[in-house]
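[step 3/7] inverse_fold.run input=structure_tokens len=230
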């Protein structure tokens, strides 16, 4: 925490909370989640690290603020297509994916943040209200929403962590050679992967959309089953 001798940040370059958050997001793109430190952030802002504590109690407080900014940037520019539950849940997934992929290691920021923040609860209120109005029980509404959100987080987390995205051409060539070599031992897997690769189906976005369709179909099946029991 700053001491009495520490200059107030507003006297030092007019430092503001949102300015710190935006600079932190820029730094995230440069160094990734593991490289994000308060000291590096202070250096980028050209202030002493102690100045940041006038606005944030600790790094966790900063991570929470970054998570809110990441989500609100995308939510604020989004217009829902309809209030049909299938469209709403698909929209939630796509909006979350766009938000997380906008920044390097965006999924790690969200995964490590406290998302139960007032600025984000309005969206949850909207979703639960409309899911409940379309026949979802309280449990079905909450679990469906959380399943879609966590599926999205997991997909982006894996996508951003996948070392193949950072591979050089020689490494990509070795992967192709490995695929040819595996044909004798794993012929079905090799054939399937080769066919899908040629068709362009194996992309992060196409895989995400396919999984999302499976989840929504499963939710529909549960709703149909519960309506027959009613």
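[step 3/7] decode complete -> sequence:
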């Amino acid at each position: 925490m700053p001491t009495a001798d520490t200059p107030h940040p507003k006297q030092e370059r007019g430092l503001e909370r949102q300015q710190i958050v935006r600079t932190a997001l820029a730094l995230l793109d440069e160094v990734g989640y593991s490289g994000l430190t308060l000291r590096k952030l202070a250096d980028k802002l050209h202030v002493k690290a102690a100045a940041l504590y006038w606005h944030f109690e600790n790094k966790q407080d900063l991570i929470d603020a970054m998570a809110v900014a990441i989500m609100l940037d995308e939510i604020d520019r989004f217009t829902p297509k309809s209030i049909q539950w299938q469209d709403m849940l698909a929209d939630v997934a796509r909006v979350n994916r766009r938000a997380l992929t906008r920044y390097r290691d965006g999924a790690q920021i969200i995964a490590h943040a406290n998302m139960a923040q007032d600025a984000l609860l309005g969206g949850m209120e909207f979703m639960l209200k409309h899911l409940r109005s379309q026949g979802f029980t309280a449990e079905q509404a909450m679990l469906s929403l959380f399943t879609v959100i966590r599926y999205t987080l997991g997909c982006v987390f894996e996508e951003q962590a996948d070392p193949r995205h950072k591979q050089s051409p020689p490494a990509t060539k070795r992967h192709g050679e490995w695929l040819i070599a595996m044909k004798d031992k794993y012929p079905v897997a090799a054939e399937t992967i080769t066919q899908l690769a040629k068709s362009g189906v194996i992309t992060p976005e196409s895989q995400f959309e396919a999984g999302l369709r499976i989840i929504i179909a499963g939710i529909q099946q549960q709703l149909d089953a519960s309506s027959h029991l009613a």
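[step 4/7] annotate
The CA atoms of residues 26 and 103 lie 8 Å apart.
Residues 1-13 have pLDDT under 50 and may be disordered.
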